[in-house]
Amino acid sequence: MSMNFSEFKKKLGAEPLSDDPEFRAARESSPEFEAAARKAEALEEKLARAFRLPVPDDLAERISALAQQPAEAPERRRWLPMALAASLLVAVGAAGLVWNSNRGWDSVEEYVMDHYRHDGPRTISRNGQSGFDEVQSLFATFDVEAAPALADIVGVIKYCPTPDGKGVHMVLNTVQGPVTVIYMPETSVQDREVLAFDDVEAVLVELEHGSAAIIGTRNQGILELYATVHDAILPLPDRS
Amino acid sequence: MNSEASRQARFNQLAEDYGADLYRYAMWICGNDALAKDLVQETYLRAWKALDKLKDSKAVKSWLITILRREYARTFERKVPRFTDVDNVVVAEETELEPDDRAEVRMLRQGIMKLAPKYREPLMMQVVLGFSCEEIAQHLEISKSAVMTQLFRAREQLKTRLQKDGVTGNVHELF
Hints:
- The complex is a heterodimer.
- Helices cover 40% and strands 21% of the residues of chain A.
- Chain A has 9 helices and 8 strands.
- In chain A, the strands form 2 sheets. A 6-stranded antiparallel beta sheet of chain A has the order 2-3-4-7-6-5, sandwiched between helices. Chain A has a two-stranded antiparallel ribbon with strand order 1-8.
- In chain A, β5 and β6 (200-206) form a beta hairpin.
- Chain B has 7 helices and no strands.
- Chain B has helices at residues 3-30, 33-49, 60-76, 99-114, 117-127, 133-140, 144-164.
- The interface between A and B is large, with 42 and 58 residues.
Protein backbone atom coordinates (compact mmCIF):
# COMPACT_ATOMS: atom_id res chain seq x y z
CA MET A 1 0.00 0.00 0.00
CA SER A 2 1.46 3.38 -0.98
CA MET A 3 1.90 6.21 1.49
CA ASN A 4 -0.14 9.36 1.34
CA PHE A 5 1.70 12.67 1.61
CA SER A 6 0.94 13.15 5.30
CA GLU A 7 2.33 9.71 6.17
CA PHE A 8 5.34 10.43 3.99
CA LYS A 9 6.07 13.71 5.80
CA LYS A 10 5.80 12.01 9.18
CA LYS A 11 8.27 9.39 8.04
CA LEU A 12 10.57 12.15 6.80
CA GLY A 13 10.44 13.79 10.19
CA ALA A 14 11.31 10.59 12.00
CA GLU A 15 13.60 8.71 9.62
CA PRO A 16 14.56 11.04 6.78
CA LEU A 17 17.31 8.73 5.55
CA SER A 18 15.26 5.56 5.70
CA ASP A 19 15.89 2.92 3.07
CA ASP A 20 12.48 1.38 3.58
CA PRO A 21 11.27 0.25 0.11
CA GLU A 22 7.77 1.67 0.56
CA PHE A 23 9.25 5.01 1.62
CA ARG A 24 11.59 5.09 -1.35
CA ALA A 25 8.78 4.21 -3.72
CA ALA A 26 6.66 7.02 -2.29
CA ARG A 27 9.53 9.43 -2.80
CA GLU A 28 9.76 8.51 -6.45
CA SER A 29 6.01 8.68 -6.98
CA SER A 30 5.73 12.43 -7.55
CA PRO A 31 7.72 15.68 -7.66
CA GLU A 32 5.95 16.86 -4.50
CA PHE A 33 7.23 13.85 -2.54
CA GLU A 34 10.70 14.25 -4.01
CA ALA A 35 10.84 17.95 -3.11
CA ALA A 36 9.81 17.21 0.49
CA ALA A 37 12.49 14.52 0.71
CA ARG A 38 15.17 16.91 -0.55
CA LYS A 39 14.21 19.48 2.06
CA ALA A 40 14.37 16.85 4.77
CA GLU A 41 17.82 15.76 3.57
CA ALA A 42 18.98 19.38 3.62
CA LEU A 43 17.87 19.74 7.23
CA GLU A 44 19.54 16.46 8.07
CA GLU A 45 22.86 17.73 6.73
CA LYS A 46 22.56 20.82 8.87
CA LEU A 47 21.67 18.75 11.92
CA ALA A 48 24.61 16.42 11.38
CA ARG A 49 26.92 19.43 11.11
CA ALA A 50 25.49 21.00 14.26
CA PHE A 51 25.81 17.77 16.24
CA ARG A 52 29.37 17.18 15.02
CA LEU A 53 31.26 18.80 17.90
CA PRO A 54 35.05 18.85 17.75
CA VAL A 55 36.81 15.94 19.37
CA PRO A 56 40.30 16.10 20.96
CA ASP A 57 42.83 15.06 18.31
CA ASP A 58 44.40 12.35 20.43
CA LEU A 59 41.21 11.04 21.99
CA ALA A 60 41.66 7.48 20.78
CA GLU A 61 45.26 7.38 22.05
CA ARG A 62 44.25 8.66 25.43
CA ILE A 63 41.46 6.14 25.70
CA SER A 64 43.86 3.35 24.73
CA ALA A 65 46.23 4.54 27.46
CA LEU A 66 43.52 4.00 30.06
CA ALA A 67 44.16 0.30 29.85
CA GLN A 68 47.72 0.95 31.01
CA GLN A 69 46.74 2.88 34.13
CA PRO A 70 47.24 1.13 37.44
CA ALA A 71 44.03 0.27 39.22
CA GLU A 72 43.10 2.99 41.65
CA ALA A 73 40.05 4.36 43.32
CA PRO A 74 37.67 5.97 40.83
CA GLU A 75 37.92 9.35 42.47
CA ARG A 76 41.68 9.37 41.99
CA ARG A 77 41.59 8.39 38.35
CA ARG A 78 42.83 10.95 35.95
CA TRP A 79 41.66 11.42 32.42
CA LEU A 80 45.13 10.91 31.07
CA PRO A 81 48.76 10.77 32.15
CA MET A 82 50.10 13.96 33.71
CA ALA A 83 52.45 14.72 30.88
CA LEU A 84 49.55 14.96 28.47
CA ALA A 85 47.21 16.98 30.68
CA ALA A 86 48.47 20.39 29.69
CA SER A 87 48.70 19.58 26.00
CA LEU A 88 45.14 18.30 26.06
CA LEU A 89 43.91 21.48 27.65
CA VAL A 90 45.91 23.52 25.20
CA ALA A 91 44.48 21.47 22.34
CA VAL A 92 40.94 21.85 23.58
CA GLY A 93 41.38 25.56 24.05
CA ALA A 94 42.98 25.92 20.65
CA ALA A 95 40.25 23.87 19.00
CA GLY A 96 37.81 26.50 20.12
CA LEU A 97 35.89 25.02 23.01
CA VAL A 98 36.03 28.39 24.67
CA TRP A 99 33.60 30.21 26.81
CA ASN A 100 31.84 32.81 24.74
CA SER A 101 33.67 36.02 25.50
CA ASN A 102 30.85 38.19 24.21
CA ARG A 103 28.96 38.14 27.46
CA GLY A 104 29.66 41.83 27.98
CA TRP A 105 30.73 42.09 31.61
CA ASP A 106 30.23 45.56 33.02
CA SER A 107 33.55 45.55 34.80
CA VAL A 108 36.70 43.52 35.30
CA GLU A 109 35.54 42.77 38.81
CA GLU A 110 32.30 41.29 37.51
CA TYR A 111 34.24 39.23 34.99
CA VAL A 112 36.62 37.84 37.64
CA MET A 113 33.78 36.78 39.90
CA ASP A 114 31.73 35.36 37.06
CA HIS A 115 34.62 33.45 35.55
CA TYR A 116 35.70 31.96 38.85
CA ARG A 117 32.20 30.92 39.79
CA HIS A 118 31.72 29.14 36.49
CA ASP A 119 35.13 27.66 35.96
CA GLY A 120 37.30 28.05 39.05
CA PRO A 121 36.51 25.04 41.24
CA ARG A 122 36.03 22.79 38.25
CA THR A 123 39.48 23.62 36.88
CA ILE A 124 41.06 23.16 40.31
CA SER A 125 39.48 19.72 40.57
CA ARG A 126 41.32 18.54 37.48
CA ASN A 127 44.64 18.44 39.33
CA GLY A 128 47.83 18.12 37.41
CA GLN A 129 51.31 19.42 36.81
CA SER A 130 52.01 21.18 33.59
CA GLY A 131 55.33 21.06 31.84
CA PHE A 132 57.50 24.16 31.54
CA ASP A 133 57.25 24.05 27.74
CA GLU A 134 53.46 23.86 27.77
CA VAL A 135 53.28 26.91 30.01
CA GLN A 136 55.62 28.92 27.83
CA SER A 137 53.77 27.81 24.71
CA LEU A 138 50.51 29.34 25.92
CA PHE A 139 52.10 32.51 27.16
CA ALA A 140 54.04 32.95 23.94
CA THR A 141 50.69 33.33 22.19
CA PHE A 142 50.48 36.72 23.88
CA ASP A 143 54.15 37.60 23.46
CA VAL A 144 54.91 37.07 27.12
CA GLU A 145 56.77 34.45 29.07
CA ALA A 146 56.54 33.04 32.57
CA ALA A 147 59.57 33.07 34.83
CA PRO A 148 60.44 29.72 36.44
CA ALA A 149 59.15 30.92 39.82
CA LEU A 150 55.69 30.82 38.28
CA ALA A 151 56.05 28.26 35.49
CA ASP A 152 57.37 25.59 37.84
CA ILE A 153 54.28 25.63 40.01
CA VAL A 154 51.63 25.69 37.29
CA GLY A 155 49.31 22.74 37.65
CA VAL A 156 46.50 23.19 35.16
CA ILE A 157 46.78 25.72 32.37
CA LYS A 158 44.41 26.54 29.54
CA TYR A 159 43.09 29.36 27.43
CA CYS A 160 40.06 31.23 28.68
CA PRO A 161 37.92 34.19 27.65
CA THR A 162 38.51 37.59 29.17
CA PRO A 163 36.70 40.90 28.70
CA ASP A 164 39.09 41.81 25.90
CA GLY A 165 39.73 38.54 24.17
CA LYS A 166 41.57 35.33 24.90
CA GLY A 167 43.60 34.91 28.07
CA VAL A 168 45.05 32.19 30.26
CA HIS A 169 43.55 30.40 33.22
CA MET A 170 46.02 28.67 35.54
CA VAL A 171 45.92 26.76 38.77
CA LEU A 172 49.11 27.14 40.75
CA ASN A 173 50.18 24.34 43.07
CA THR A 174 51.34 26.42 46.02
CA VAL A 175 52.27 25.35 49.53
CA GLN A 176 48.97 26.88 50.62
CA GLY A 177 47.08 24.71 48.15
CA PRO A 178 45.75 25.38 44.65
CA VAL A 179 45.44 29.04 43.69
CA THR A 180 43.81 30.33 40.52
CA VAL A 181 45.48 32.93 38.34
CA ILE A 182 43.75 34.43 35.34
CA TYR A 183 45.98 36.28 32.90
CA MET A 184 44.26 38.99 30.84
CA PRO A 185 46.67 40.17 28.15
CA GLU A 186 44.60 43.12 26.94
CA THR A 187 42.91 44.27 30.12
CA SER A 188 43.96 46.95 32.58
CA VAL A 189 43.06 46.76 36.25
CA GLN A 190 43.36 48.84 39.37
CA ASP A 191 46.59 47.46 40.73
CA ARG A 192 46.35 45.67 44.11
CA GLU A 193 42.56 45.96 44.20
CA VAL A 194 41.14 43.22 46.42
CA LEU A 195 37.79 41.57 45.81
CA ALA A 196 35.95 39.38 48.28
CA PHE A 197 33.13 37.16 47.09
CA ASP A 198 31.61 33.87 48.14
CA ASP A 199 34.31 32.18 50.22
CA VAL A 200 37.26 33.46 48.19
CA GLU A 201 39.18 36.63 47.63
CA ALA A 202 41.00 37.97 44.61
CA VAL A 203 43.76 40.48 44.10
CA LEU A 204 44.22 42.24 40.78
CA VAL A 205 47.71 42.72 39.44
CA GLU A 206 48.64 45.27 36.79
CA LEU A 207 51.46 43.81 34.70
CA GLU A 208 53.89 45.20 32.20
CA HIS A 209 51.79 43.52 29.52
CA GLY A 210 48.19 43.03 30.54
CA SER A 211 46.99 42.13 34.00
CA ALA A 212 46.14 39.19 36.20
CA ALA A 213 43.75 38.13 38.91
CA ILE A 214 44.93 35.87 41.73
CA ILE A 215 42.06 34.03 43.39
CA GLY A 216 42.06 31.80 46.41
CA THR A 217 40.34 31.07 49.70
CA ARG A 218 40.63 33.55 52.51
CA ASN A 219 43.22 31.57 54.42
CA GLN A 220 45.60 31.08 51.50
CA GLY A 221 47.33 34.43 51.75
CA ILE A 222 47.01 35.26 48.07
CA LEU A 223 48.42 38.74 48.64
CA GLU A 224 51.74 37.05 49.22
CA LEU A 225 51.61 35.79 45.65
CA TYR A 226 51.29 39.29 44.25
CA ALA A 227 55.05 39.72 43.80
CA THR A 228 55.48 36.27 42.31
CA VAL A 229 52.85 36.88 39.64
CA HIS A 230 53.81 40.53 39.07
CA ASP A 231 57.47 39.73 38.53
CA ALA A 232 57.01 36.51 36.60
CA ILE A 233 54.84 37.40 33.60
CA LEU A 234 57.05 39.46 31.33
CA PRO A 235 57.14 40.49 27.68
CA LEU A 236 59.21 38.27 25.49
CA PRO A 237 62.69 39.75 25.03
CA ASP A 238 62.16 40.79 21.39
CA ARG A 239 59.20 42.93 22.40
CA SER A 240 60.89 44.83 25.29
CA MET B 1 50.09 -12.01 19.44
CA ASN B 2 49.61 -13.13 23.03
CA SER B 3 46.23 -12.81 24.72
CA GLU B 4 47.09 -9.62 26.62
CA ALA B 5 48.38 -7.92 23.50
CA SER B 6 45.35 -9.16 21.63
CA ARG B 7 43.09 -7.72 24.30
CA GLN B 8 44.86 -4.37 24.16
CA ALA B 9 44.62 -4.36 20.38
CA ARG B 10 40.90 -5.05 20.57
CA PHE B 11 40.47 -2.22 23.10
CA ASN B 12 42.51 0.13 20.93
CA GLN B 13 40.18 -0.61 18.05
CA LEU B 14 37.17 0.22 20.21
CA ALA B 15 38.78 3.54 21.06
CA GLU B 16 39.48 4.25 17.41
CA ASP B 17 36.06 3.19 16.15
CA TYR B 18 33.76 4.64 18.78
CA GLY B 19 35.66 7.15 20.92
CA ALA B 20 34.62 10.20 18.91
CA ASP B 21 30.94 9.28 18.85
CA LEU B 22 30.93 8.55 22.55
CA TYR B 23 32.65 11.83 23.36
CA ARG B 24 30.17 13.80 21.23
CA TYR B 25 27.23 11.98 22.75
CA ALA B 26 28.62 12.59 26.24
CA MET B 27 29.10 16.27 25.43
CA TRP B 28 25.48 16.57 24.35
CA ILE B 29 24.10 14.89 27.45
CA CYS B 30 26.50 16.59 29.89
CA GLY B 31 26.86 19.94 28.13
CA ASN B 32 30.25 20.14 29.79
CA ASP B 33 33.62 19.20 28.33
CA ALA B 34 35.31 18.09 31.55
CA LEU B 35 32.40 15.91 32.61
CA ALA B 36 32.07 14.47 29.13
CA LYS B 37 35.70 13.39 29.22
CA ASP B 38 35.25 11.87 32.66
CA LEU B 39 32.20 10.04 31.43
CA VAL B 40 33.99 8.66 28.39
CA GLN B 41 36.91 7.65 30.59
CA GLU B 42 34.68 5.81 33.03
CA THR B 43 32.84 4.13 30.17
CA TYR B 44 36.00 2.82 28.59
CA LEU B 45 37.48 1.75 31.91
CA ARG B 46 34.40 -0.35 32.54
CA ALA B 47 34.53 -1.62 28.99
CA TRP B 48 38.14 -2.67 29.49
CA LYS B 49 37.22 -4.68 32.57
CA ALA B 50 34.28 -6.35 30.83
CA LEU B 51 35.88 -6.72 27.41
CA ASP B 52 36.04 -10.49 27.56
CA LYS B 53 32.28 -10.66 28.02
CA LEU B 54 31.63 -8.89 24.74
CA LYS B 55 30.99 -11.63 22.23
CA ASP B 56 28.90 -9.95 19.56
CA SER B 57 31.05 -7.46 17.68
CA LYS B 58 27.96 -5.98 16.02
CA ALA B 59 26.59 -4.92 19.39
CA VAL B 60 29.70 -3.01 20.49
CA LYS B 61 28.45 0.53 20.02
CA SER B 62 25.17 -0.24 21.68
CA TRP B 63 27.03 -1.91 24.55
CA LEU B 64 29.29 1.10 25.07
CA ILE B 65 26.35 3.50 25.02
CA THR B 66 24.55 1.37 27.57
CA ILE B 67 27.57 1.63 29.87
CA LEU B 68 27.87 5.36 29.27
CA ARG B 69 24.21 6.05 29.97
CA ARG B 70 24.31 4.03 33.15
CA GLU B 71 27.43 5.84 34.31
CA TYR B 72 25.80 9.15 33.56
CA ALA B 73 22.68 8.28 35.50
CA ARG B 74 24.62 6.75 38.35
CA THR B 75 27.44 9.20 38.81
CA PHE B 76 27.34 12.33 36.71
CA GLU B 77 23.77 13.42 36.35
CA ARG B 78 23.79 15.37 39.56
CA LYS B 79 27.12 17.00 38.76
CA VAL B 80 26.10 18.76 35.57
CA PRO B 81 26.47 22.49 36.16
CA ARG B 82 24.11 25.05 34.71
CA PHE B 83 26.81 26.51 32.61
CA THR B 84 27.33 24.51 29.48
CA ASP B 85 30.20 24.27 27.05
CA VAL B 86 28.00 23.15 24.18
CA ASP B 87 25.76 26.16 24.49
CA ASN B 88 28.70 28.45 23.94
CA VAL B 89 30.93 26.33 21.81
CA VAL B 90 32.87 28.11 19.16
CA VAL B 91 34.13 25.56 16.77
CA ALA B 92 37.34 25.79 14.86
CA GLU B 93 35.67 24.68 11.66
CA GLU B 94 33.15 27.50 11.99
CA THR B 95 35.81 29.88 10.80
CA GLU B 96 35.65 28.06 7.48
CA LEU B 97 31.92 28.58 7.16
CA GLU B 98 30.12 31.52 5.66
CA PRO B 99 28.57 33.88 8.24
CA ASP B 100 25.05 32.64 7.49
CA ASP B 101 26.12 29.03 7.93
CA ARG B 102 27.88 29.87 11.21
CA ALA B 103 24.75 31.55 12.50
CA GLU B 104 22.72 28.55 11.45
CA VAL B 105 25.01 26.09 13.25
CA ARG B 106 24.83 28.19 16.41
CA MET B 107 21.05 28.44 16.18
CA LEU B 108 20.70 24.72 15.69
CA ARG B 109 22.99 23.95 18.61
CA GLN B 110 21.07 26.28 20.85
CA GLY B 111 17.84 24.77 19.60
CA ILE B 112 19.11 21.26 20.28
CA MET B 113 20.08 22.21 23.83
CA LYS B 114 16.65 23.71 24.38
CA LEU B 115 14.82 20.56 23.32
CA ALA B 116 13.23 18.62 26.13
CA PRO B 117 15.39 15.57 26.97
CA LYS B 118 12.71 13.21 25.69
CA TYR B 119 13.10 14.79 22.24
CA ARG B 120 16.82 15.52 22.35
CA GLU B 121 18.05 12.12 23.40
CA PRO B 122 16.45 10.06 20.62
CA LEU B 123 17.61 12.66 18.11
CA MET B 124 21.16 12.46 19.46
CA MET B 125 21.10 8.69 19.28
CA GLN B 126 19.91 8.79 15.69
CA VAL B 127 22.11 11.57 14.33
CA VAL B 128 25.27 11.25 16.48
CA LEU B 129 25.32 7.50 16.95
CA GLY B 130 23.47 6.37 13.84
CA PHE B 131 21.05 4.17 15.78
CA SER B 132 17.90 2.88 14.16
CA CYS B 133 14.52 3.56 15.70
CA GLU B 134 14.47 0.00 16.97
CA GLU B 135 17.83 0.44 18.72
CA ILE B 136 16.74 3.77 20.21
CA ALA B 137 13.54 2.19 21.48
CA GLN B 138 15.59 -0.53 23.15
CA HIS B 139 17.89 1.91 24.90
CA LEU B 140 15.15 4.21 26.04
CA GLU B 141 12.79 1.35 26.89
CA ILE B 142 9.91 2.80 24.93
CA SER B 143 8.06 1.69 21.82
CA LYS B 144 9.35 2.28 18.33
CA SER B 145 6.30 4.35 17.49
CA ALA B 146 6.99 6.58 20.51
CA VAL B 147 10.55 7.05 19.28
CA MET B 148 9.34 8.03 15.83
CA THR B 149 6.88 10.53 17.30
CA GLN B 150 9.60 12.11 19.44
CA LEU B 151 12.01 12.30 16.51
CA PHE B 152 9.36 13.95 14.36
CA ARG B 153 8.55 16.48 17.07
CA ALA B 154 12.23 17.20 17.70
CA ARG B 155 12.79 18.08 14.06
CA GLU B 156 9.61 20.13 13.86
CA GLN B 157 10.68 22.14 16.90
CA LEU B 158 14.11 22.77 15.44
CA LYS B 159 12.64 23.87 12.12
CA THR B 160 10.30 26.22 13.92
CA ARG B 161 13.17 27.67 15.91
CA LEU B 162 15.24 28.30 12.82
CA GLN B 163 12.32 29.99 11.14
CA LYS B 164 11.49 32.09 14.21
CA ASP B 165 15.05 33.25 14.66
CA GLY B 166 15.09 34.43 11.10
CA VAL B 167 18.26 32.67 10.12
CA THR B 168 18.94 33.54 6.53
CA GLY B 169 20.67 31.57 3.91
CA ASN B 170 18.97 28.48 2.64
CA VAL B 171 16.86 27.89 5.70
CA HIS B 172 13.74 29.16 3.97
CA GLU B 173 14.08 26.23 1.60
CA LEU B 174 13.39 23.86 4.48
CA PHE B 175 9.78 25.01 4.88
